[in-house]
């Protein structure tokens, strides 16, 4: 027997003329769906899997698909995002080797690309050091 749980939340602020609401449906299996409604956006998502946003005034869709896989027993997180009206696509990925070392990369259909390595020093007061490569320029920051 499959159990299903649903919840509904809403909010309306009359002096600002705004309203929002959300519906969450959780099942005993793999499906967890969440729909969110605001004045200008309607969203449908399955956390960690996909998100579809519809912007009502712009009549525009945004699709995002996410997935995690393991490489050398380390999680690699991927995200694919497409903006329909702008006809723009972005691809992001990151991999954590351990708590101190992380690599991330992103690129989009406009030709932009970033690769970033983040090292966090043991002494957290240092804040870590980040080196990034954006297109053909090297950017670095420590803080």
From TrEMBL:
GO terms for molecular function: porin activity; voltage-gated monoatomic cation channel activity. The keyword Translocase does not apply. InterPro entries: OEP24 (IPR034626). It is found in: Plastid, Chloroplast outer membrane; Plastid, Etioplast membrane. High-conductance voltage-dependent solute channel with a slight selectivity for cations transporting triosephosphates, dicarboxylic acids, ATP, inorganic phosphate (Pi), sugars, and positively or negatively charged amino acids. Homooligomers form large rather nonselective pores in plastidial outer membranes. This is Uncharacterized protein.
